[in-house]
Every structure is written in structure tokens, then in C-alpha cells.
Amino acid sequence: MRSFLATSAIALGLTACASQTPAPAQPVAATKPAAVAKVPQCFNGDTGKFEAVGAVSTISGLKVACEKTSDGKNAQWMSAKK
């Protein structure tokens, strides 16, 4: 009885695989719009917004300035020069 059930399950599986239709061809992807140049910014958690490079602010009571990183791709808060 077990062999009959196993044989039936295998036959059903093979029949199901054989009757599947091929996957439709992938549609042509639309071209991406031109990327906008990313401007480095610093996030100010106290105000909840992004600040431009060169902005001076007070975060948690500490005076800081938004400065570009050495690679120029990002920005980070640094201690403001007195």
C-alpha cells in the first residue's frame, strides 16, 4: 500500500511538472531617469532635518559644524572651530 501511495505521488508530481507552461519573456526594463547629483548633508537629530555643508549648529549642547568627509562623498558633524 505504501509503495502504491509513493508511486502515485511521484507520478502526480511528474505530471504536474510536465504540464507547466514556460515562463513568459521578461518585459524590457524602462530606462532610469538621470540621477540627481547627491549633495553631502549632515542630519541634525535635535531638529529632525538635514543641514548643508558649512552649517553650524548646537547638538545636545555642543557646538558643531557640518563638514565634508575626506572623499567628498558624505558629510559629518565635527567640533566647531572657535
| Helix content estimate | 10-25%
Silhouette: elongated
- As residue ranges, the low-confidence spans are none
Strand proportion: 25-35%
**End-to-end C-alpha gap:** 88 Å
Order of helices and strands: HEEEEE
Largest sheet: 3 strands, antiparallel
Question: Can you count the helices?
Answer: 1
* Assembly state of the chains shown: single chain
| Mean pLDDT rating | 82
Measured on Cα atoms, how large is the radius of gyration? 30 Å
The side-by-side strand order for the widest beta sheet comes to 3-4-5
Description of the molecule:
With 82 residues, the chain is of the alpha+beta class. It has a domain at 39-82. Helices cover 21% and strands 29% of the residues. The strands form two sheets. Strands 3-4-5 form a three-stranded antiparallel sheet, with no helix packed on it. A two-stranded antiparallel sheet has the order 1-2. A hairpin with a 6-residue loop joins strand 4 (62-68) and strand 5 (75-79). It is elongated. The termini are far apart.
Features of this protein?
single chain, 82 residues, alpha+beta, three-stranded antiparallel β-sheet, two-stranded antiparallel ribbon, 5 strands, 21% helix, elongated
Briefly summarize what is shown.
Helix content is 21%, strand content 29%. The protein is an alpha+beta fold and 82 residues long.
